[in-house]
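Need tokens for this chain, all 204 residues.
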Amino acid sequence: MAALGGGIYIVHPSELVGPENPAKNEQGDPSFNLSFVRDIKTKGKAFQAIMERLRMLAIYAKEKRLKVALENMGWWSEEVVAKTVDLLNEVRSDNIGLCLDVGHANRSHNAKRMIRSFEKKIITTHLHDNHGEETDEHLLPFLGSVNWRKMLETLKENEYSGVLLYEPLTRGTPISVEQTKHSLHRIRLLWEEVQKNPKEKPRP
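Here are the structure tokens for all 204 residues:
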């Protein structure tokens, strides 16, 4: 991946591979897809298994000159966010961070608090929009209910300086080149404005 110019590998934490999934352990499944919903809330064997696999992944990523980003999913509660940050603090690797998926954060209805809770562990982003409901619409930014100014202001407060990566999907509805260009232009202008004039707000 690094040879192709890619520097960050994004993981959807979804399926546990650890003591609670013995079938996959017996098969020697090396998957690093993780399940936080049930197991990250405790300090039990499953949590320890997740942590050890992340440490292994961090070593491998460093050897390959890569970083790995765990992406927040639409069902992440504030507790899951906090436990994920705890997990990364225990792993203690510069090669493991977080991918802020703005659309998923909007569906969790705690986007601003989520970004702040992520501290400075966000290493990349996924930008897309939705209406904060069950369907993961993956609309172009500004076509849903995300408050993009507040979102970018909060990213700035967290001293984020990485890329703003678009992730819209057509879902059967074509997206024109002109629509995409217009959305990109608005995001670029808004980000530049936030960089020059960040909104100063005391953290709660």
